[in-house]
Amino acid sequence: MQTPNASVIPKRAVPPRIEDDAWARMRFRNLVDARCAPGMGIVQGTARFAPGEGEALHSHPIGETAHVLTGGGTVTLDGAQRSVEPGDTVVAPAGTVHGWQAGPAALEILYTFPADDFDAIEYRYVDP
């Protein structure tokens, strides 16, 4: 593993990406991954769901944590829906089926994966 260097990653270095398909409607920005912080071993970023929008049920072969920054809504974890609000942290161990739904206000989360590259994280969406 490469030894990471101390650094500041400017906002312009990590442009936002938009998902708009059958599985998710959101805007996200990967803040830390191998492209901008090699050797850290984490992928961390923010995802924003517009009011009423969300991400379909899915799982990953690795765990994920998500901290609610703003707004509110629901997260589904292995079939159980739970309300979330700013300050809540969601823990989804590897294989946990989960999905997001913003409430009447936009929902923004900070997500973290134990991985080097976001594009290598497998998303296993559940058929509706």
Task: Provide a descriptive summary of the structure in words.
This protein is mainly β and 128 residues long. The chain has a single domain, classed as Jelly Rolls. Helices cover 0% and strands 47% of the residues. It has no helices and 11 strands. It has strands at residues 17-20, 25-32, 43-49, 54-59, 64-70, 73-77, 80-84, 89-92, 98-102, 107-113, 124-125. A 6-stranded antiparallel sheet has the order 1-2-3-10-5-8, with no helix packed on it. It is globular. The model has no long low-confidence stretch (mean pLDDT 91). Pfam families: Cupin_2. Residues 47-105 form the Cupin type-2 domain. InterPro entries: Cupin_2 (IPR013096), RmlC-like_jellyroll (IPR014710), RmlC_Cupin_sf (IPR011051). This is Cupin domain-containing protein.
Structural class category: mainly beta
Biggest beta-sheet profile: 6 strands, antiparallel
Q: Termini distance?
A: 39 Å
Strand content: over 45%
Series of secondary-structure elements, N-terminal to C-terminal: EEEEEEEEEEE
- Assign a percent range to the helix content: under 10%
Query: Strands of the largest sheet, in order across it?
Result: 1-2-3-10-5-8
CATH class: Mainly Beta
Number of domains: 1
Count of discrete alpha- or pi-helical segments spanning 4 or more residues? 0
CATH topology group:
Jelly Rolls
The low-confidence parts are none
Please provide the count of β strands: 11
Radius of gyration: 14 Å
CATH architecture: Sandwich
CATH homologous superfamily label: Jelly Rolls
